[in-house]
Amino acid sequence: MNILVTGGAGFIGSNFIRYLLGKDPDCHVTNLDKLTYCGNLENLADIENMPNYRFVRGDVTEVKRVEEVIRDVDCVINFAAETHVDRSIMNASEFIMTDAYGTYVLLEAARKYKTKRFLQISTDEVYGSIPSGAANEEDRLNPSNPYSASKAGADLLARSYYITYDFPVIVLRPSNNFGQYQYPEKLIPLFITNALMDMSMPLYGDGKNVRDWLYVEDTCRAIDLVLRDGKIGEVYNISGGSKKTNIEIAEIILKELNKPKELIKFVRDRPGHDRRYSIDGAKLERLGFVKKFVFEDAMKKTIDWYRQNRQWWEKIKSGDFKNYYKKQYAR
Ligand code: NAD
Ligand code: TDX
Predict the structure, then answer these.
(1) Annotated catalytic sites, by residue?
(2) How far apart are CA 242 and CA 76, in angstroms?
(3) What digits encode the pLDDT tens for the residues 43-91?
(4) Alpha-carbon distance 32 to 70, whole Å?
(5) CA 207 to chain CA mean position, Å
(6) How far is the CA of 12 from the centre of ligand 2 (A)?
(7) Which CATH superfamily includes the segment(s) 2-178+215-238?
(8) Measured between alpha carbons, how far is 275 from 212 in angstroms, rounded to an integer?
(9) Distance (Å) from CA 86 to ligand 1 centroid
């Protein structure tokens, strides 16, 4: 199977490529990535020389580039996106371009070259805040920030290609991921790396917002299952089943690293901050998905990875990230 992975130099994409090539040596993967601030080829250093892996630098909004790489593939898995909510609040333009328009370019090219399967990686954020219970795949989309609104646009556009053109699309909506190679602007790697540097952990608002955490290796297994057995035209939630408040996450990290509670610093809330994410993963379980990782063990593994891979994140945190961080937390 020839697969085009877009955004494969990012967090989930790089973990997915590693998982897939490790599991199925008959797969050929082309990784199309623009290498934005969070695209990092170091995430793939251990597989870059594999004969069945190819990296192509390119932007999913460029029709010519996309057509060049899409013409020979059987499947597309679209991870490419701007992904950080706080950055989308500062400036939404790249989010609309990549997340929404980029998905349109990919869908059009895939349709032209008759791609057999198109997996759109959406997100649980498209449902918006869920005060109680859990959103299932039929529930209405209710995004509340420019990132999730762009992702919801892409999600609906992808579905419309199935309905209108009978084009073989499947949409996946994973919950909050964590694990190795996650860019340290996101909650868990930010708090781990800050704590390792004895820097404060900036907790938004009252710290009681809830996220449903999913270990990235389970996400990879879920995507692989849907790639092979998922039903065309369907949407699948991927739930972590581990709901935690942000303050609980901070406390777990502090305890594991043996750091003082005083590192927690309450800061101004994120505008439009969704209070609670919660999705129902039963449909994917009916397809055969069983989560392999227990949250507490996966957190330990993740914290350990950041402890042992300081050179990976220190390089990031001492580069351009410093300017972003100052701007973001000076609000
Ligand atoms: P990430 O920010 O770590 O990586 C995104 C990748 O996309 C980077 O390698 C970047 O260079 C690339 N990219 C950005 N713009 C591009 C463009 N115009 N053309 C080509 N490549 C481009 O993201 P992630 O956390 O790995 O998320 C991957 C996907 O999963 C995204 O679509 C995201 O919306 C979705 N998702 C993420 C999470 C999560 O918790 N991380 C949860 C649910 C869904
Ligand atoms: O410094 C912080 N302090 C803080 O309290 C940061 C960065 C975050 N938070 C809070 C905001 C959220 O309630 O932690 C929670 C998680 O924040 P993020 O890591 O920014 O993730 P979130 O906004 O939930 O979105 C993530 O999950 C869904 C990903 O970034 C998206 O790409 C994905 O689609």
Answers:
(1) 124-125, 147
(2) 29
(3) 999 999 999 999 999 999 999 999 999 999 999 999 999 999 999 999 9
(4) 10
(5) 22
(6) 15
(7) NAD(P)-binding Rossmann-like Domain (3.40.50.720)
(8) 12
(9) 14
Ligand 1: residues with CB < 6 A are 6-7, 9-13, 33-36, 38-39, 59-61, 79-83, 98, 102, 121, 123, 151, 174, 176-177, 183
Positions in the chain whose pLDDT score sits under 50: none
Strands 210-215 and 243-245: antiparallel
Ligand nearest to the CA of 62: 1
- What per-residue confidence (pLDDT) applies to 331? 65
State percent of the chain over pLDDT 90. 98
Residues ≥6 apart with Cβ < 8 Å to 242: 212, 213, 214, 295
Cβ atoms within 10 Å of 53's Cβ, excluding its own: 20
* Cβ atoms 136, 124 nearer than 8 A: no
Instruction: Identify the three-state secondary structure at position 290.
Output: coil
Q: Which ligand is in closest contact with the Cα of 154?
A: 1
Cβ-based burial of 291 (10 A; exposed 0-12, middle 13-18, buried ≥19): buried
Residue with tokens 């927690």: 264
Q: Is the dihedral of CA 35, 187, 178, 224 positive or negative?
A: negative
Distance CA 25, CA 35 (A): 26
Boundaries of every domain in the chain: 2-178+215-238
Cα–Cα distances (Å) from 277 to 138, 224, 273, in that order, read 16, 24, 11
Q: Please, what is the average pLDDT of the chain?
A: 97
